[in-house]
Amino acid sequence: MFSIKQLELFVHTARLGSVQRAAEHLHLSPSAAAKRLRDLERSSAVPLFEPQDRQKARLTAKGREMLALCEDLLKTLQAIEKGA
């Protein structure tokens, strides 16, 4: 099962292009962010990021699919929080 925090970090990492930037944005340590993403990838059973340069986060095809789903889910959760 995925946590909302994992999905938020995944979305921010994909949007910002690096785990470091996403960690800063979410006020996490880089090591905590990296662990959270590793746990997410382990739970998803497919690689979400290309295994390339650690400085840049490039999504796999499955990662791009998951990004779209996560963005929709997070928008829905925000609407629920606002009482829509």
Automatic annotation (TrEMBL):
* Source organism superkingdom: Bacteria
The record places domain HTH lysR-type at 2-60
**Which sequence ranges form a coiled-coil region, renumbered to this chain?**
none
Asked if the keyword RNA-binding belongs to this entry, the reply reads no
One MF term in the entry's GO annotations? transcription cis-regulatory region binding
Q: Pfam families per the record?
A: HTH_1 (PF00126)
Q: What keywords tag this UniProt record? A: DNA-binding, Transcription, Transcription regulation
- InterPro entries this protein is in? LysR_HTH_N, WH-like_DNA-bd_sf, WH_DNA-bd_sf
- Cited PANTHER family: HTH-TYPE TRANSCRIPTIONAL REGULATOR, HTH-TYPE TRANSCRIPTIONAL REGULATOR GLTR
Family from the record: Belongs to the LysR transcriptional regulatory family.
The protein, known as: HTH lysR-type domain-containing protein
Task: Supply the source organism for this entry.
Answer: Achromobacter deleyi
